[in-house]
Design brief:
Helix content: 25-40%
Bound molecules: pyridoxal-5'-phosphate
Strand content: 15-25%
Order of helices and strands: EEEHHHEHEHEHEEEHEEEHHHEEHEEH
């Protein structure tokens, strides 16, 4: 095989086997160059919601191509962006009224951070600190890395990262410590915003906490005039059982970031939604109060058309029923590992199931991670454990039989690890 010039993300090229090419995608499957169908049990890094190449979304993309390519998004606007914004306001928790477009989850969060700081700056009472939760992940740009968990991923860049107030993760029974830490941080009067993944901390190890805590954090934020930024980049579009995870806590964050499932996973697009108050703080005859942010491909019309089609899918198809059915499937299939001593922290949030394989040395760099991946790959399953944390986050079209195959492979892997054969 000739050596490829491609440098892949989160890939140690010295240790990885040569990569197979994927020739096409279909429903819950990736089909490789040899025609083998691989079950995409992690929705291609959490982006595919309904299934690969949903017909209505692909048709909308084709139709949009007849009229648009990229269009500058200052001075002019276009219908896909306008229609999508109206739809997002309708779908999002009540009280969010403005939509700012960008291209990825990371940029959606960067925009949110800038909105929060701009809000206080333009009001003439600047605040400069951001509070976050331990084990959080918000992206891989310098700003979002600053707010995420520090570790091997960002050690090289540490000197450039800014300081944040880090709240301890609310381990069951220790929720009060999280609330107290937030209250204490807020007392400085300097915390512009709490940036938080609602209910599930994804890349940090599928760590889950309850809606009551999220609601309580919102109350504390309100008391101190601190904004809440909900990073729903992963949790949005049904993953946790509701369209947005914030709904379960019955809260409206001041700023909401969405990306991954926004187009059903078909094209890259992100949106940062905010309240009228935040928009108004930037609306002024004084030009220096303008929101100074843009990326070249802001609100790409074809991506917006894909997202509009995704909203139609949510309106016209029984997506919530599919989400509920998948959540039930995950619960019944996970149950077999509840009392299994080879696993710990068996947990679920809606369509997301996760469990920790008990190994002597866990954590993200646990050597068991790549071995598990190879085990799953050999069984035509795309499952990428976060170290010793195994999780399944399939598209909503996945069948019970598909899911059973994934769970059987997890069971088998645990058996092999126990016998020292994996
Ligand atoms: C994936 C993710 C991001 C980053 O999104 P990208 O599109 O990869 O930049 C941000 N926040 C959360 C919670 C995510 O899961």
């Amino acid at each position: 095989m000739t050596r490829s010039p491609v440098w892949h993300p989160f890939t140690q090229h010295a240790l990885e086997p040569p990569m197979k090419r994927i020739a096409r995608t279909e429903g819950a499957y990736l089909v490789d160059e040899d025609g083998a169908a691989i079950l995409d049990a992690i929705s291609s890094w959490w982006v595919i919601t309904h299934g690969h190449r949903h017909p209505a979304i692909m048709a909308a993309i084709q139709e949009a191509c007849e009229a648009y390519d990229q269009i500058i998004f200052a001075e002019y606007t276009h219908e896909p962006a306008e229609e999508l914004a109206r739809g997002l306001i309708e779908f999002a928790p009540a009280g969010l009224s403005h939509v700012f477009y960008s291209d990825s989850g990371s940029t959606a969060v960067e925009v949110a951070l800038k909105m929060a700081l701009g809000f206080f700056h333009n009001a003439g009472r600047p605040r400069s600190r951001i509070a976050v939760m331990e084990h959080g992940y918000h992206g891989d740009t310098i700003g979002t890395m600053s707010t995420g968990e520090r570790g091997v991923f960002n050690a090289a860049y540490e000197p450039l990262l800014f300081e944040v107030d880090r709240l301890p993760f609310p381990e069951p029974g220790h929720e009060q410590a999280t609330l107290d830490a937030f209250e204490a941080a807020c007392r400085s009067g300097q915390v512009a915003a709490l940036l938080i993944e609602p209910l599930v901390l994804g890349a940090g190890g599928m760590k889950m906490y309850g809606a009551a805590l999220l609601r309580e954090l919102k109350r504390i934020a309100e008391r101190h005039g601190t904004l809440m930024i909900a990073d729903e980049v992963m949790t949005g579009w049904g993953r946790t059982g509701s369209l947005f995870a914030c709904e379960q806590a019955q809260i409206t964050p001041d700023i909401l970031c969405t990306s991954k499932g926004l187009t059903g996973g078909a094209l890259p697009l992100a949106a940062t939604l905010c309240t009228a108050e935040i928009f108004q703080a930037h609306r002024s005859s004084d030009r220096s109060k303008t929101f100074f942010h843009s990326s070249s491909y802001t609100a790409n019309p074809i991506a917006c058309a894909a997202a509009v089609a995704n909203l139609h899918v949510w309106r016209n198809e029984p997506v919530s029923d599919r989400v509920a059915a998948l959540s039930d499937l995950q619960r019944t299939r996970l149950a077999r590992f509840e009392a299994d001593p080879r696993f710990a922290n068996v947990r679920q949030a809606g369509t997301i199931a996760a469990l920790d394989l008990v190994v002597p040395r866990g954590g993200y760099l646990s050597e068991v991670g790549p071995r598990l991946r190879a085990h799953f790959r050999a069984r035509k399953l795309l499952i990428r454990p976060l170290g010793n944390v195994i999780y399944l986050m399939p598209p909503y079209c996945v069948t019970a039989a598909d899911l059973d195959r994934a769970y059987d492979a997890i069971d088998e892997a645990a058996g092999l690890v126990e016998k020292g054969q994996l």
